[in-house]
Amino acid sequence: MRLLLPIVSCFVLATPALAQTVDADGAARLTDSLSRYVGKDAFDRKILAVAPEAGAYRLSFDIEPLAAMLPAKAKVKFDISPFSVLVKPLSDGKWDVVGDTIPDGALETEGPNGRQSMKWTVSDGRFAGVYDPALAAFPTASGSHAGMAVASRDAAGDMQSTTGAGTFRSTGVAAQGGGVDISFNQSVADFVQNMQVAAEAGGATMPVTLKAASLTLEGTGKGYRTSQLLDLVAFGVANSDEAKLKANQAELKRLLLTALPMWNRLDGTYRFGDLDVTTPVGNFGAKTVSFGFGMDGVVQNATVSYKIGLASLAIPTGLLPEWSATLLPTDVDLNLDGVGFDFQDMAKKVIDSFDLNRDAVVPDEVGAEIAADFLARPPKLVIAPSSMKNRDTQVSLAGEVTFVGTEPNADVTVDVAGFDKMFENLQAASKQAPELSQYLPMALIAKGFAKPQPDGSLRWKVVRKADGSVSINDVQLKGPDAPSGEGNAQ
Fold first, then answer.
1. CA nearest 339: which of 397, 396, 386, 300?
2. With contact defined as beta carbons under 8 Å apart, do 250 and 180 qualify?
3. Count of CB atoms within 10 A of residue 183's CB?
4. Domain regions of the chain by residue span
5. What are 429-442's pLDDT values in tens digits?
6. pTM for the predicted model, two decimal places
7. CA-CA 20 to 30 A from 425: which of 36, 93, 130, 462?
8. Which helix (H) or strand (E) holds 321?
């Protein structure tokens, strides 16, 4: 999919499909349109080819001529099987697209960390979609494969992974305010990954196997500026010569500014189902494991988000002391946001100031100004409602941390359900591990500061101000720090 879409997406300014006759002249027009995005050389060297076929156009891709162009000193080898798609003009001006998803291939490079290689195969990969030149996106697309295998090797160790059958679907619609709203869902079954992990380069390796009944990826893109980003691709192709690029950098700046904010919001989540991790020390597992990431586009008050989720975490028997079983969390839901990034100001300063005719493309003083602005208006860390729990206890967190200079200003609320049961478990564990008994008085003191809630849970509202003072539930535990050289206030 990653290889297919950049090629097919170039139909954005192709001759409209409406009432188009499929013939050699149409193939020539389509070739000219695609050349704007991939360069005329791609067709002259037979890397890409367009030919009429049964009421459609066959768009073929062959990597061999491109691989032959690489100089030996590049230390890069790649071999990707030829593949093609059929693109058929529709009466409403869109294009029907069918073909392969990911061709088989291999890649080998050599760099400072030694040789790296990767080889992949895909069984029965299929793609079908409708491309809309007005959107520069697929309103609908779907695909499937019967299986996939990937093998890689580098200084850190070897890796082989396989999957069973997989599918994906995506949609794209015009977004209010410009751009395209895109959604994407991909899933594969029977994910297996075998690794030989080295603690350090050249050291002993340890076998690790990951297995998951399912692996899914869900993503959305709001207001993605597909047309403007393709305009940048076309500019790069038309100005690939260094002298021409330098002469036309004013147009490059205009196109970059026009493409802002690139997108309004991007979000994606990977999720493993029934994960099992086999190691020499035993098996780790979880019902689900998920990792999420999201970020706003190049705007003034941007948010970057991270999410981690674990359900029914299992740890090998004997790896940890028996008494820890009742205290360790089995479920985790962690949500963190960085709020207030001024990506727009940073980007505009870089775009306005860069000059390709200088040795330092972006002046050092501009970089220093951006850094100073960041320190003067640092983003805020927000702990969105998060929790950790086990059989008897749940700890919930929410709050935020701002900064005054380099000093944190934190306001965090901690709720604990099942505190008394946790205390009983700690007491029981201290009989097997006497060193835990030192935490029992601390737990009682903490309970004394707590504020009972209607549901029976206990709450601690912890405030740490930039002046160094600390309070819990409005009871001050520590006063402001004394000025430097005068000692600390108590």
1. 300
2. no
3. 15
4. 173-225+261-391, 394-478
5. 999 899 999 999 99
6. 0.86
7. 462
8. none
